[in-house]
């Protein structure tokens, strides 16, 4: 591709400005990330690591951790409620959704903590505002930095200290002076008539070109490089320990979820000794306003299989045994089902914390299904107490410095004694 055509394409597409912005916000290719691993990763094997799993859409906590003995639960959602013989009981009151067999094994192994009734003051039912609150840890005043981003600022961390394998950098990793890195894994789908050679031509260096245009060109080179590396990670297979190799943590042409690809890349980085301490991954689709039961079960099944396989893989290495996973959503659903056999935006819900270092069991108090706030659950646990505990217990940081709004987090007993 000649220089004139290439420059016109970059400028007309608007990529120059967008690419510069992305680079300024911590753009990092997977190849660069893997190159940060030391030649001998054994020295970093004891570094604690955090994996944030965001469930976008508002997960129905009452059909995830099911209050199967509560008559108010069955009365509020007769078509959606699970009977006692259907759930996977955790005790005599609460049980997991019947598709979550992998998580039940982790519970039995005391590697799964279930934090009950998690929310924040003055709940907001907007997806965008509520997720913003969770990721910035600032329920009352909008702020422009995430709680992990502020930790990056405070520690003057390198870009690879926090990595997202999502399409765009989530607010949680954005600081004022530092930001995590974003490595997208959606794959490269070229439009008709555009070949990989043409994309490679866009990424070719041109002598004397402006710096911003050079950055834009590098974005095209990264597209091809990340595509190759992602496909390599997808082809890795890892049997789920203790299950006869029936489950694998991989992706392939059969249409496995983006979450599986993301966690496969996290596993690869952890095992390689990459110095990243925080990873961000996600699964969407939880806005279940209609015909919820089948769709929700499908999502929870995918989440369950992927997470349990990932934790099993992590348990095999010293570096992996330092990994803690937290699973959250922007809000739960309303207690009463709607007329479309679904549920609408609610408030509090459960949060999962899992991994070899976790003190398994229940933490917090299950909200009442009869003492409601305009039909919604009243939160019994502030989400900042969880994030504060993770800041202290995983990142070795002072929670009061990074949670914002002057909040003093309570330390939860989420971790077994090291």
From TrEMBL:
Glycosyltransferase is among the record's keywords = no
Which key words tag this protein in UniProt?
Signal
Signal sequence extent: 1-22
InterPro entries xrefs: DUF1501, TAT_signal
Asked if the keyword GTP-binding belongs to this entry, the reply reads no
Q: Which PROSITE patterns is this protein grouped with?
A: TAT (PS51318)
**Highest taxon listed in the record's lineage:** Bacteria
Protein's name according to its UniProt entry? DUF1501 domain-containing protein
